[in-house]
Design brief:
Order of helices and strands: EEEEEEEEEEEEEEEEEHEEEEHE
Distance between the termini: 49 Å
Structural class: mainly beta
Number of strands: 22
Oligomer: single chain
């Protein structure tokens, strides 16, 4: 991507005309450019643009629009899918063909307001473990990323007519951590990290739902791990409700993400480095991919 080489100048065609973008192209490359605007037609800075090759499904360019809503990338010749998204707005997708030595006229992409999904009916919703995953990604010092998950947990969502009063609680069995390497997993369970003998559970209890537009929410709450409690915010995307599953139960789904700093929970990675212990890095990306079942007298708990 050649954003650093981009020269931008506005067209003399008057207000509303597409900008004239020019880019010094590497030999054999073509260029894609777009101007992203909001529902009122105003330039939208900070919109996320992802360009993916259709043949390999690899991301060829990724970035955000500048304060004028502009984005441009130099690309090898080929066919691409372009996804443009911004918080609270409906993503826009299009396909484009790139030719060597050619810069396409910049596309004007107008993002529309996102449709708010209907919220789950009030009541208690219990996590369905076979269809729920609690995952994490951490960078191993000096090596690639470590991917792991927790296999034993319980949790639920209590939905009230006023979402501000709704609550979520999750309890994770810390000893159920797994990364696919038995030696590493045992070390993660040890006193150097989670110390599961003294702190067997990781708990999250929400304090507030904050609506961000469209299907986006921030779920504020308290995370307790390794004997320490900290306030965290989960960036949450509500995926809707559906009748499905074993007995056509009513289900809802959501995807929540957060970045945790291990030293906030007294997991001191610097001291372990000083002792020569190979550790994961100081930050951990946490992801909860949740499917919950509506609790009724007929289905008091999710199936085993």
């Amino acid at each position: 991507m050649a954003l650093g080489l981009l020269r931008r100048r506005r067209s003399r065609g008057g207000p509303g005309a597409a900008p004239d973008l020019s880019l010094p192209l590497p030999a054999g490359a073509g260029a894609y450019g777009c101007e992203v605007v909001d529902p009122l037609g105003q330039p939208l800075g900070g919109a996320e643009v992802t360009v993916t090759a259709l043949d390999s499904h690899r991301v060829a360019a990724h970035g955000t629009t500048d304060p004028y809503g502009l984005f441009m990338a130099a690309l090898p010749p080929g066919s691409y899918s372009v996804m443009v998204s911004a918080e609270g707005l409906t993503p826009a997708r299009s396909n484009v063909d790139i030719t060597a030595g050619a810069a396409l006229p910049p596309a004007r992409v107008a993002l529309l307001p996102a449709r708010q999904l209907e919220l789950p009916p009030p009541g208690t919703w219990l996590f369905d473990p076979p269809h729920t995953a609690i995952r994490f990604i951490a960078k191993h010092v000096g090596m690639a990323h470590v991917h792991g998950r927790f296999t034993r947990f319980t949790g639920g969502i209590h939905i009230t007519p006023d979402m501000d009063d709704s609550r979520v609680s999750v309890r994770i069995d810390a000893a159920s951590i797994t990364t696919g390497n038995r030696t590493r997993d045992n070390h993660l369970r040890s006193a150097d990290f989670l110390d599961v003998e003294h702190y067997p559970y990781i708990d999250f209890t929400s304090t507030r739902f904050v609506y961000r537009g469209g299907s986006r929410w921030t779920l504020n709450g308290t995370l307790t791990m390794h004997g320490t409690s900290r306030s965290v915010g989960l960036d949450t995307t509500y995926l809707g409700t559906v009748n499905g599953g074993y007995e056509q139960e009513l289900r809802c789904a959501a995807l929540a993400k957060a970045e945790l700093h291990r030293e906030d929970f007294t997991l001191n990675w610097r001291s372990m480095l000083a002792r020569g212990i190979a550790v994961v890095g100081p930050t951990v990306q946490l992801e909860l991919d949740v499917q919950a079942m509506y609790r009724t007298p007929e289905t008091p708990t999710p199936p085993e």
